[in-house]
């Protein structure tokens, strides 16, 4: 028996199918113009590439942006908040985790969870691009780098340049200023990653840090941001034995199994 989760974010969409043994299949892709198109596309990709029959899926839960629309269209039978789903998915992958840092394209969340992944507390930044994947995307583009390169290039930095502004737009101006003055992309990228980590660390302190700590979302793949957070919070971030971007969809699939009956 299979259960599924669909997570449509601002930049990527994921679908995960689980069975009694764990994760059976998953797919991730860039989003389409609206959440329903994104959900249909990622499910179609999973079905075609993983040879999974959607008819064998007993129950599906949607999460992320437009989760209600995805349910209305009949692609899922219920929907849950991404906060609950990320907590549940993280606990499945890292049972000892008690704090989950999730950095998405348009928001950042710090979630405190109990032993079974149940939500205890959370804090969220969804009012400003600073401290989100969008912040890194803007600064990477300004530097002429891809998001993946932003983390790797900064590892060659000789010094970390300070970005003093709290606003993404003003930070972009600072990045351009540094480029015009001849500073290396590595030094600037290191400053960008540190500025990102500072904003997220502030969120962690607001909700209260409880070990063990892990990250989900695409920014978890940025080794430089991870290293800065570990230094600022004095913790070791536990890595998943899975793609960090599927944590929300995995949590939705686990919710589906709970709702649909295992």
Rg calculated over all Cα atoms = 19 Å
Report the top-level CATH class of the largest domain.
Alpha Beta
Class based on secondary structure composition and strand pairing = alpha/beta
CATH architecture call of the largest domain:
2-Layer Sandwich
CATH topology of the largest domain: Nucleotidyltransferase, domain 5
Taken in chain order, the helices and strands follow as EEEHEHEHEEEHHHHEHEH
Number of H/I helices: 9
Main sheet?
A: 5 strands, mixed
Percent range for helical residues?
A: 40-55%
Task: Give the number of domains.
Answer: 2
Shape: globular
Question: CATH superfamily of the largest domain, please?
Answer: ATPase, nucleotide binding domain
How much of the polypeptide forms β-strand, as a percent range? 15-25%
